[in-house]
Design brief:
With about 140 residues, this protein is mainly alpha-helical. The protein has six helices and no strands. It starts with 6 loop residues before the first helix and ends with a helix.
């Protein structure tokens, strides 16, 4: 399987480019938080989508859409199902990195007054790169 042909990989490359050119992307009069939050968001979603693809193709696991749960069932988001599957299939390190990325993304998206540091961005990129380099399709 050639992952380079998939949108997950394109999003990964876009995220890396955003880091490399972030100084050019910050609008005049804005601080770096605007681009840092976008980078963290993209790092999370490229990683989540990559994990989902890997689980489907390598482990035959597809998360159940939350709308398909019955009224009497506990609803578990697809994001949590993916992390649980990674953990249960022995990919605890990857599950942990995806969880940390999810927390960074939650802060980036829902706490606009919290600073997002260069360290936060570096951590997000490191988690993303680790996920992409660890999960193989062959």
């Amino acid at each position: 399987m050639d992952i380079a042909k998939y949108p997950q990989y394109e999003l990964y490359l876009l995220t890396l480019n955003m880091v490399n050119f972030k100084n050019l992307l910050v609008p005049d009069g804005c601080d770096e938080r605007c681009i840092n939050s976008t980078i963290i968001n993209r790092a999370y979603f490229s990683s989540y989508l990559y994990c989902t693809l890997w689980l489907e193709y390598v482990k035959n696991f597809i998360p159940i859409p939350i709308k398909e749960f019955g009224d009497d069932e506990v609803k578990v988001s697809e994001h949590v199902q993916v992390r649980n599957a990674l953990f249960n299939l022995g990919e605890k390190n990857i599950e942990e990195k995806l969880y940390k990325l999810a927390n960074l993304r939650r802060t980036a998206d829902y706490d606009p007054f919290r600073d997002l540091t260069t360290t936060d961005v570096s951590n997000a990129i490191g988690y993303m790169e680790n996920i992409f380099s660890h999960l193989k399709f062959d």
